[in-house]
């Protein structure tokens, strides 16, 4: 599969490495960035040709898929352009910063028949797969609650380094939209459709930003289960993601990329799948590669990818409900 990478920043370099790791299943044919010299640095390491705009790359190259690694508010327009050009699409999280933008991509996907996946690589981690299997097989019984914690730290320089970070217009949000959305996505994936959110946010440890560096929320799900989430970039020195799922017959805990605890009244711990990849890659990197492999397989097999565009929209809708509840001081209802 021939890929174009759109956006040659830090995350773009990560995606170039992932395409390279696909081996015979993927080749980086084009790197697009308005700073062509920056695109050229990725090309020098991972191959392909540098272009200033997607249109130039689409006109010059035979491409199958596009990986969008731009600032969040640019995702939807770029995805629609790619779909209309006949390309399949991977979008870095979040899908965009508004539901209207996400819906534009959904309409374009429906009209073109392209495959679209939103990055949520933690779903592919073996311990996460074990927890989901325990839910699906009934090992945990009725799922009653969950807790997703993303207690990270970002120094002031993180926000000062790029003109768009920490802005409402381009970043769309802070600790939850950009960091905590991964763990929130897992919580929603495990517990089902969220129907009501009550939340608070704060900006406590950073200056000159328009977004939160701390968010907490209580989420009521359609099943009656209740989820709690905390997202922070103000928790020095930062801790790994922690996810706890409780049921009336068992409990499972993800901590530090491992299944740290599992107990079930009438079931054994599910077997962990094995992810293969380059030596020395971290668990989250292998999961990222697994999502790329799933995307390639989904295109070839004509099936939905493991993380769909609708999945990305649901996570975005939950984030936006958190922000609205925090602004209004009231619970916010979510529509499916």
UniProtKB/TrEMBL annotation:
GO molecular function annotation: nucleotide binding
Domain (Gfo/Idh/MocA-like oxidoreductase N-terminal) ranges: 1-118
Gene3D superfamilies: Dihydrodipicolinate Reductase, domain 2, NAD(P)-binding Rossmann-like Domain
Domain GFO/IDH/MocA-like oxidoreductase intervals: 129-252
Lineage: superkingdom: Bacteria
Name of this chain's protein: Putative dehydrogenase
Source organism of the structure: Kribbella shirazensis
Lineage, broadest ranks: Bacteria, Bacillati, Actinomycetota, Actinomycetes, Propionibacteriales
């Amino acid at each position: 599969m021939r890929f174009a990478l759109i956006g040659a920043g830090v995350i773009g370099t990560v995606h170039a490495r992932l395409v390279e790791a696909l081996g015979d299943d993927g080749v980086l044919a084009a790197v697009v960035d308005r700073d062509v010299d920056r695109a050229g640095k990725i090309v020098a390491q991972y191959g392909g040709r540098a272009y200033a705009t997607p249109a130039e790359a689409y006109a010059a190259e035979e491409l199958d898929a596009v990986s969008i690694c731009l600032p969040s508010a640019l995702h939807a327009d770029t995805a629609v352009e790619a779909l209309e050009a006949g390309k399949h699409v991977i979008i870095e999280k979040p899908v965009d910063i508004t539901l209207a933008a996400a819906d534009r991509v959904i309409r374009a996907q429906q009209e073109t028949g392209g495959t679209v996946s939103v990055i949520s690589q933690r779903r592919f981690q073996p311990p996460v797969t074990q927890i989901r299997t325990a839910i699906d097989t009934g090992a945990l019984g009725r799922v009653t609650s969950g807790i997703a914690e993303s207690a990270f730290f970002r120094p002031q320089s993180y926000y000062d380094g790029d003109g768009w970070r920490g802005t409402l217009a381009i970043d769309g949000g802070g600790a939850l939209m950009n960091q905590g959305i991964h763990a929130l996505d897992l919580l929603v994936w495990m517990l089902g459709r969220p129907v009501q959110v009550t939340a608070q946010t704060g900006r406590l440890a950073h200056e000159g930003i328009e977004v939160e560096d701390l968010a907490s929320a209580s989420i009521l799900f359609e099943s009656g289960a209740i989820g709690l989430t905390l997202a922070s970039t103000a928790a020095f020195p930062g801790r790994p993601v922690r996810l706890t799922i409780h049921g009336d017959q068992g409990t499972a805990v993800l901590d530090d990329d491992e299944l740290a605890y599992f107990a079930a009244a009438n079931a054994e711990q599910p077997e962990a799948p094995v992810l293969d990849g380059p030596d020395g890659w971290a668990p989250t990197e292998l999961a990222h590669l697994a999502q790329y492999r799933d995307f390639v397989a989904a295109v070839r097999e004509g099936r939905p990818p493991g993380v769909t565009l609708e999945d990305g929209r649901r996570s975005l809708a939950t984030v936006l409900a958190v922000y609205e509840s925090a602004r209004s001081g009231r619970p916010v209802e979510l529509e499916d």
